[in-house]
Amino acid sequence: MIGEINPILRRRKLATELRRLREDLGFNGVQVSQALHWSTSKLSRLETGQVAPSAKDVARLLRHYEAAGDEAGLLLELAGNHAPKGWWESYSDVLAEVVLEYIGLEDGATSIRAWNNNVLPGLLQTRAYATEMAMLYRSVELAPPTVIERRTRARMRRQQLLMNERLSYTAVVEEAALRRRFGGADAALMHEQLRHLLKLSDQPNITIRMLLLEQPHPIDLSSFVHLGFPSMPLLGPISGDVVYTEDYPALELIEAEERVYRYSVFFDLLCDAALDEEASRDRIASLAGL
């Protein structure tokens, strides 16, 4: 289990557990920092996941908290230096830091629920569609062709996680996103994209549902992605649920429990209003001329 957890989720889980251990003992950050001869900023960075703690630092904290047994062993294993870097880190020159963080979270999720009202979800896009979308930002950002290509390549790489049958992926897509053409996108590009959606929907772990324009809309809400994560023995969920919103140029990871829960309710409302899976497939096939 530990070996399957990527570096971003390891860092986040360690931060959560180290903070919990301190709080359970009633210590504050100043007390712990003084006892270990650390700066308070160092402890703060460890407990907020800003940096990945070394196994040595984690061991010192565990001794100070008198933590032992299987739980301590798991935390030390999480802090091990044997975890390779995430593949997405090689794209740090063309992707914003919040996007890299999101990709790492997405990579470790076991549940992804996406609502898209204007464009198709990134995980479902063909290369041609993704390239067309990336080129649109040229009007607001001076992105040379090499940057566009690398961003598109990163998006295609992300899609490999859909082959993981342990992942449950559900997308609710507004009909407008299936009809709309962007930039130089032509009918052939969109037909290819629609056929791609039909092919993906054959996979048992992928559900694609359409919200018709003619249907009453349950809520006025921009696109978002809701991520859920697996649990570890003894330590519980690797991460709390996270919501990612992307309304360029504002990109946000939402982790506050109450806000995340609201998005979960919103998604349920959208699912209730959308066509079921079979009817959605029929509509997509009709739009594709099949």
Automatic annotation (TrEMBL):
Superkingdom of the organism of origin: Bacteria
InterPro entries xref list: Cro/C1-type_HTH (IPR001387), DUF5753 (IPR043917), Lambda_DNA-bd_dom_sf (IPR010982)
Pfam families: DUF5753, HTH_31
HTH cro/C1-type domain: residues covered: 18-72
GO molecular function: DNA binding
Stated name of the protein: Helix-turn-helix domain-containing protein
Species in which this protein is naturally found: Nonomuraea solani
